[in-house]
């Protein structure tokens, strides 16, 4: 996870490793797009402790989506109607859908990440957020036959681990 990558690094080293992790995300999304359409959900820890990581992601995002677009234009990804939709969610004490619905508009995704609010509660309910995302956006999997990919950006294991882990897995 990004948490384990970042927690063991100095800031400069963490930035390089986060960029490598984003390269891996790009590769995984591209690989999945070769098989079917994808809904990519960026799940951001709302605590103030990952502000630097969110800034790195926002800065690098244009490259991630640009590479995916280039792969589609060169027929390395099948040309489906709206092959990639993305959504942005912030989690803390509560889950906030920063994009009301998934979108193909890059600028909407970028703005949602750049403007994601800080949750002052100190709570990080990631597993509750996973359940809420999958419940709210399951129709994209069922009706549009999309693969749902969740990218969680956090520096904690989650405060709701004990009672929400198993439901999230299910």
What does this structure look like?
With 170 residues, this protein is α/β, with parallel strands linked by helices. It is built from seven helices and four strands, in the order ααβαββαααβα. It has helices at 2-7, 11-33, 51-73, 106-114, 126-136, 138-142, 161-169, and strands at 38-45, 84-91, 95-97, 147-153. Helix 3 (51-73) packs antiparallel against helix 4 and helix 5 packs parallel to helix 7. The relative contact order is 0.20. The model is unreliable at 1-15 (pLDDT under 50).
Radius of gyration over all CA atoms, rounded = 16 Å
What low-confidence regions span 5 or more consecutive residues with pLDDT below 50?
A: 1-15
Helical proportion? 40-55%
- Count the E strands: 4
- The helix/strand series, from N terminus to C terminus, equals HHEHEEHHHEH
Structural class by SSE content: alpha/beta
* Mean pLDDT reading: 84
Looking at the chains present, what oligomeric state does this protein adopt?
Answer: single chain
- How would you describe the shape? globular
How far do the termini sit from each other? 20 Å
Number of helices: 7
Strand order of the largest sheet: 3-2-1-4
Percentage beta strand: 15-25%
> Main beta sheet: strand number and arrangement?
4 strands, mixed
């Amino acid at each position: 996870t990004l948490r384990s990558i970042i927690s063991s690094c100095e800031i400069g080293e963490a930035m390089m490793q986060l960029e490598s992790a984003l390269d891996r995300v790009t590769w995984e999304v591209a690989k999945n797009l070769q098989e079917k359409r994808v809904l990519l959900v960026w799940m951001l820890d709302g605590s103030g402790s990952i502000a630097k990581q969110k800034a790195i992601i926002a800065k690098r995002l244009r490259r991630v989506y640009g590479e995916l677009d280039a792969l589609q234009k060169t027929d390395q990804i099948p040309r489906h109607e709206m092959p990639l939709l993305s959504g942005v969610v912030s989690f803390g004490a509560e889950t906030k859908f920063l994009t009301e619905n998934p979108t193909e508009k890059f600028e909407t995704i970028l703005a949602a990440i750049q403007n994601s609010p800080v949750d002052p509660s100190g709570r990080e309910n990631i597993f509750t957020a996973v359940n809420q995302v999958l419940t709210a956006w399951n129709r994209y999997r069922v009706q549009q036959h999309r693969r749902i990919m969740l990218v969680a950006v956090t520096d904690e294991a989650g405060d709701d681990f004990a009672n929400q882990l198993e439901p999230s897995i299910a």
